[in-house]
Amino acid sequence: MFTDLVQDSGLEIVSRHDFGFYWAFWMMLYWADFQAEGKQLDAATHDLIAPPYAELLNDWASLWQQLLQLPAGPAIKRRLDALLPKSQIVVARKPLSGSR
């Protein structure tokens, strides 16, 4: 895990944030749909992404918005962001003298 690498290097983690499950899953759906259409990925994917988007991606966006509107939606989002983050932010520092 990324935080283990940070701590093993002797740094103290001050805070961490995981986010981006929605986009990580969106990209998986994009690639699956792209390949299902018989297309090949010969270049960087970000150069190929442009509207109109596949119906599958629009359905995912709609489902995600519905989830976020539920009372438990934000908590589920936080758990999913931790499970499969697109990005992680770790703020770390050298330990203060006498710690560790």
Could you describe the 3D structure shown?
The protein is α+β, with helices and mostly antiparallel strands and 100 residues long. It folds into two domains: 1-20 and 87-100, no CATH class; 22-40 and 51-84, no CATH class. It is built from four helices and two strands, in the order αβαααβ. It has helices at residues 2-8, 21-36, 55-69, 73-83; strands at residues 12-19, 87-93. It has a two-stranded antiparallel sheet. Helix 2 (21-36) packs antiparallel against helix 3 (55-69) and helix 3 (55-69) crosses helix 4 (73-83). The chain is flat, with a radius of gyration of 18 Å. The mean pLDDT is 90.
Topology overview:
Elements: H1 2-8, E1 12-19, H2 21-36, H3 55-69, H4 73-83, E2 87-93
Antiparallel strand pairs: 1-2
The main β sheet shows up as: 2 strands, antiparallel
- Computed CA radius of gyration, to the nearest angstrom: 18 Å
Number of distinct beta strands: 2
What are the low-pLDDT stretches, counting only 5+ consecutive residues below 50?
Answer: none
Strand order of the largest sheet: 1-2
* Content of β-strand: 15-25%
Would you tell me the overall average pLDDT?
A: 90
Order of helices and strands: HEHHHE
* Domain count: 2
Number of helices: 4
